[in-house]
Structures
1.
Amino acid sequence: GAVVSQHPSWVICKSGTSVKIECRSLDFQATTMFWYRQFPKQSLMLMATSNEGSKATYEQGVEKDKFLINHASLTLSTLTVTSAHPEDSSFYICSAGQSGPEGEQFFGPGTRLTVL
Amino acid sequence: AQSVAQPEDQVNVAEGNPLTVKCTYSVSGNPYLFWYVQYPNRGLQFLLKYITGDNLVKGSYGFEAEFNKSQTSFHLKKPSALVSDSALYFCAVRAGGYQKVTFGTGTKLQVIP
C-alpha cells in the first residue's frame, strides 16, 4: 500500500510554545489529508480535513486558530499546535486519501506530543 | 450522520482458537467499511475493506470480515488466533463518494498463549 510519513514521531515541548507536525504522502499525490487526535485508550477523533490549495475544514469543537493546518502541496500537510498547553498532549495521526469513491485512507505512524 | 459501534472493549481468545471482533454501523446509502489494527504507539494499519461484491472479504494476516446488510454488521474474523494478533482493532465506515471516515471506539484483542 501507499506510504504516509509523519515527522516528528514524538515531541516534548514547554507550555506556550508552538509545535509543527508534518504529514507526507511518499508515493502518491493526495489532494485531501486528514488530521486525527487520539487520547489514551480512545478512538480516533477527526480534527480537520486538509485540502490542497484551500482552507482546511474543521470539525465542530476544534479551534482553527489553535490547530493551524496548511496543505501547501499534493504531498505535504502540516499541523501546527499554537501556544500548546498540557491538555493538548495527545497522539496526532494524519491520513492521506486516494482519489475516487473507493479510495482508502493510508495512515501515518502518528506523532506523540507531550506538553510540559 | 454515520456511526460505528464496537460493543466489546476487549476480547480474549486462546491461541489457535477462532476469533471474532464485532462491528455494527449506521450510514446513509451504501457503506464503505474498513478494519484497521493499531499496535502500541503506532499508527493504524489497514487490514481490509468492503466496497461492493462478495460479502466475505479477505484481508491481511489471515483476517477476513463478513458484510451483513440486513444486520448492518461487519464483524472481523480469523480462523486461528496468534499471540502476535494482540492489538487494538478499529472498525470504520464511510459513505460512498465522501471521504470522511468515522471510527468505532476500538476493541482490544488479547490472544492468550
2.
Amino acid sequence: ETGVTQTPRHLVMGMTNKKSLKCEQHLGHNAMYWYKQSAKKPLELMFVYNFKEQTENNSVPSRFSPECPNSSHLFLHLHTLQPEDSALYLCASSQEWSADTQYFGPGTRLTVL
Amino acid sequence: AQTVTQSQPEMSVQEAETVTLSCTYDTSESDYYLFWYKQPPSRQMILVIRQEAYKQQNATENRFSVNFQKAAKSFSLKISDSQLGDAAMYFCAFIIQGAQKLVFGQGTRLTINP
C-alpha cells in the first residue's frame, strides 16, 4: 500500500452503535488529520495529531473520539452519532506539522440511520 | 476571519480546450501557502498544485498553472488541453505559516465535454 489508506470505505450505522474508522499513512509523515466533508459545506478540520500528540480539536462533539497510537495510524471512534453526522470523513497526513502539504486518503462514507 | 471563495459552483469545457477556475481568499497574514486539490468521483482528494505566497513566480505542473495575484488575494487555476480525466470537483485552499488548519473553498465542479 502506498499513500494514505482508509478503512472501511463505506459504513452504515445506527444511532446506538459504536464503530471505528481507521487511517494509515505509508509516507513517513509526522502529522495526521481528520476532516469532515458534508454536502454543500467546505471541508471542516476536526482533529490534528503531531507526533502522536493531539494539537487541535476543532470543537468537535465528544461522540467523536480520536486515537493516534503512533505516527502512522489514526483512528476515529464513533458512538451515539446523530443523522447529521452522516458525511465523508477524510484522513490526511503531512511531513511537517505546520503549513505543509497535506495528502489525503480516499475517505469513509458514513451514513447514520 | 480566514475564508476562501470559489464563485463558480460549476464549470464545463470542451475536451482539449482551456479552462480557468477562480478563487479568492481572505487573510490578514502575509506568509501562507495556497493549494488546488481535485476530488474525482472516487472521492480521493488529490493535490494538483501548490504556491508559496512569498514567491512571485506562478507555479506550474504540466497542464496546470496558476495565476497568483497576492495584492488582489486571487489564486486562479488554469487547465490547458483539458482531458476527460480532469473531470472532478476542484477545491482551492490555503494555510498560514505556523498553522495546521487548511481553509477550503466550497469547490467548483468541472465537467469535460467530449
